[in-house]
Amino acid sequence: MSVKDTSKKGASYVKKSPWIIHYDAASCNGCDIEVLASLTPLYDVERFGIINTGNPRHADIFLVTGSVNEQAKPVIEQIYSQMVEPKVVIACGICACSGGVFKTCYNTMGGIDQVIPVDVYVPGCAVRPEALIDGVVRALDILEQKRAAMDAGLPVPTPEVKLGVETPRVLHTQDDPDESGTPIEPAAQGGEGAKR
Amino acid sequence: MGIIWFLIVFPLVAAALCVISRDERLRGVIVCVSACVIAVGSIVLAAQHLGGTARYYAFSSVAISVVLFIVELALCAYIMWRSLSARKYGVFVLACVQALLACVAEFGPSGSVEVHRAVYIDTLSSIMVLIIGIIGSGICVYAVGYMRDFQRHQDELARQGKEFSTDRQGFFFAVMFAFLSGMFGIVTFNDLAWMLCAWEVTTVCSFYLIGYTKTAEATANSFRQIWMNLIGGIAFATAVIIIGVTCSVMELDRFIAIGALAPMAAMLPVALLALASLTKAAQMPFHTWLLGAMVAPTPTSALLHSSTMVKAGVFLLIRLSPLMGVYVSGLPRMGINPVGFSVILVGCITFLLASLIAVSQSNAKRVLAYSTIPTRGRIVTCAGIGSAAAVWAAIFLLIFHACAKSLLFLCVGTAEHHIGSRNIEDMDSLITRMPKLAVLMAFGICGMFIAPFGMLVSKWAALGAFVNSGVIVIVIMLAFGSAATFFFWAKWLAKIVAGDPSAENVEGSVHTTEWCALGLMALLLAACSIFLPAISSGVVTPYVRQLTGGVMRMPSAGDLVLMAVCAFVMIAIPLVVALRARSIRRGDGHQPYFGGVGHGHAAFMDSMGQQVAYTQRNWYLEGMFNEEKIGMIGTVLCTIIAFMGISASVGLAVVFFGSVI
Amino acid sequence: MVWLSVLLAILFVVVAPVLGCLITGADRILTARMQRRRGPSILQPYYDVRKLLEKDARANDVVQVILLALSLVMLVVAGVCLYAGANFLLCILLETLSSLMFILAASVDPSPFVQVGVQREILQVMCCEPMLLLFAVGVYLYTGSFSVSSLFSTNLPMVVWLPLIFIGLVFVLTIKLRKSPFDIASSHHAHQEIVAGASTEMSGLSLALIEVTHWYELVILMSWVGMFFVTSNPLSVLLAILAAAVVFLLEIWIDNSFARVKWQVMFKSSWMVALVCGMVNFAMFFFIDSNGLVFF
Prior knowledge:
The complex is a heterotrimer. By secondary structure, chain A is an alpha/beta fold. Chain A is 29% helix and 15% strand. Chain A has one domain (14-194): Rossmann fold. Chain A has helices at 3-6, 30-37, 72-82, 94-98, 129-151, 190-194, and strands at 19-26, 51-52, 61-66, 68-69, 88-92, 108-110, 120-122. A 5-stranded parallel β-sheet of chain A has the order 2-1-3-5-7, with helices on both faces. Chain A has a two-stranded antiparallel ribbon with strand order 4-6. The longest helix of chain A has 23 residues, at 129-151. Chain A is globular. Helices cover 74% and strands 2% of the residues of chain B. Chain B has a 3-stranded antiparallel β-sheet, with no helix packed on it. Chain B has a two-stranded antiparallel ribbon with strand order 1-2. In chain B, β3 (598-599) and β4 (603-605) form a beta hairpin. The two termini of chain B are 42 Å apart. By secondary structure, chain C is mostly helical. Chain C has one domain. Chain C has 10 helices and no strands. In chain C, α3 (62-83) packs parallel to α8 (204-227) and α5 (112-143) packs parallel to α10. The chains are: A alpha/beta, B mainly alpha, C mainly alpha. Chains in contact: A-B, A-C, B-C.
């Protein structure tokens, strides 16, 4: 999907200055190390205007590593609600995508999409910086769609929270047309956190 | 001249009525009506003389002299009695000395000096009359509601057996009015002996008002006030005697004229009068009495700080400013005037150190006290410099400080009665609990440190005057003091703007009289800010020209336009505060980020899933701005400087009279 | 000369944000290069602001936006005042006032990070204020008036007479520019302690206003540095620009080479520098050019 199709005002700037907040839900820290590695000279994400703000009010992209457990759930929900539209969520690493090896643990709820709507899934254990940067770049298109919808006064397209829904085996980005028809259950608990 | 006497006598009548009337409601009516009469009287008087040349009335009266002499002895007797019953023998001795000096002044050679023009009025007096008449009586009106709450509170304490309480409100109001009368006397009497008596009246009235609650602390503080001011009174009386003996005059204007011709002859009395002024103006080392005065009911603090007492000191200094300038021709040793120089240093050191101490204070009244002392310090310094620009700045500081500070005091007083604390830290959410008061308080704070008062006058004009005085050390002190000033005002203002929307509004029970007085002060402050150019060109500049002979270089037209932009901020901030009060009521705002899970504005979830309350506090940097340490430094430094100033002037007097004889 | 003042003032209002934006961009690139990174585009600050303006405006507090706008206006007026050659003291006062507005705007938010940041901001103003006032006094002593335009009628650049004041100014500029060692560990750093300090709770429009304010502020601060080098010779303006550029590079270098210090160190050192620089420089001034002035 091209940026210019949706934008009436011409070039948009959300894609040029994505600011990130990174939250470690229940990660083993492997992915966190890689997230920080992308700030280093080798990868230097600031090239793309990316800043790791560590502040939901400033951030456009919510980068979550690790699976969600009961402790982390309210935190993730609140950080998400504190972010200002347009915003996207990136599940970073296999645990964040689906729960990974911790999926069946007694205290784990699974992937991030069990709690808040996730726009981009980036697999990997641990996620590689290249994959991470690629995920962010994909997220930028979604961010732009959301901005365009916001500008046009339309509801911001947000994926549903998939509480209780099995995470698809093939990981994908949300705008993948194949998966747009995923059956969606009304989210009893997660829905609350999904609303701003 | 009739109005002058009316303004001096009428408050005394009002005072008598207050004592007689037993009924609270009736007394309230009396106070309000008398306050209005006094205000109207002072406006009429000022309107006739503001901006014009000084008017001296050829008037003298033996009868009045005798009456005032008796009053003075009576005051001394009152202090002796109080000090004996409280076993404060030092104060007793001082009071005896004071009485003795009064007798010497009356029956000695100075008593026989003929006085021709005992009463006068000029622009500075008119300004003071306006301040006393409008702000002073406004405070009396405020006190009607305030004292009612205060008395309830005292009765409550008495019922719990904590404190002993009797209703002495009648006396309270009587003393307030007597105080006003004394102040009118100070600013209009040209006869130094009469002025001395009025001076003593204000001292003793404030002594009574500070000790009003009769608690141990109040009594101790009132005695601290009295011994310090008795020293000033003794210095004043000595100066009067010396002036009478050496200059053979008893009038202030003629003394100043003689002093301008023969600076060395007048040096010692000027030094003594300056000392008296410094005690009244609560400059270091005498600043502690003003802090002690904070235990008194708030109207007392407002009256002492903003409109009267401390103003009397700087009034006299501005009067004497022609005799003080750093360089006076005809003096030995590079022509440095020891009195002017020590006054400047005392004022400036006080300004710097008291501002620094204010940073560490959280009690709102003490913050106000510690901002009053530096403002006085600045006025004192300006008067000490004595140039046209300096005196211009001094007079404007006087005017603005009177309006802004009385507004702030009254705000704090009302807040204290309704939120139960005078601590700034307890003023959390004042904006939701008392929105209107918060707006007024913000206005007062803006009045104190934003344009035009804080910036145009106290930095611009004062800095220019300080630099021109050539004493660079005071410029450096001013720079550091101003920085500290910013710190404590800004954090107070920041406290007012923040607020919890869930707090309850408790503003309903504020008395109408309190609102009237608060509104009056705010109006005065706004008027002074808006009409500043007019006041400057119409009133102050002509007076400064008469007094110093110099011309005040007003800021240029372009500067004034820019200044107007600054003045706009002063109005803008209270408006924004008002807007904030409304938006907070509507419940705007979002869940703040707590780096985890927050619950509303004042709690977060800990790692065990429990809610933990959190509070936020301002910084006071007590380790660096330690009150005791800095106060001690100031006391020592200023005492040394005052001693040096006086001994230098004694030396000059000895040299001068030695050569004459 | 009036038209020249007006022209310069208008030029300031229009050009300063562009210039400020470019300098900020250059700062980010240079910083990145010093850290062996490539860094963003030079227009990155501009992109950031445009992006912030695209964020949901409903998230902003009206009062906060008004106060921030006032802060911006105050600063623009300060710059106009400077470039129109008007009173320099007024320029400094307005700059302080602008900081106050920002402080008030931030304190609207009841967040612990904001409150710590606000106290820190107030402290920073207190640290800088003495040196700035002494700077104004220096201008007054050197030219005989507070008027900026009078600097353009001098024969020698001011820095010759007031070298220590210049050093003191460069010292407090580090605080004013929010550079290490006197900054806080906030966002935009890889190491964060109090999130974004005073601006933690701001978003979108509010943040954009702050950014634009910083652009103006940067130009004003660099102009202050330039003031030390201008003379009656028009070419001296080039020297002033060069000096400002060198000082800015120095600040970036300091930012990247010094570890952060505690506020106590910031406070003590800035006041000490102001005191020593002010005292010694004025003493030198009077020693060389005494007009019968008293000095202690």
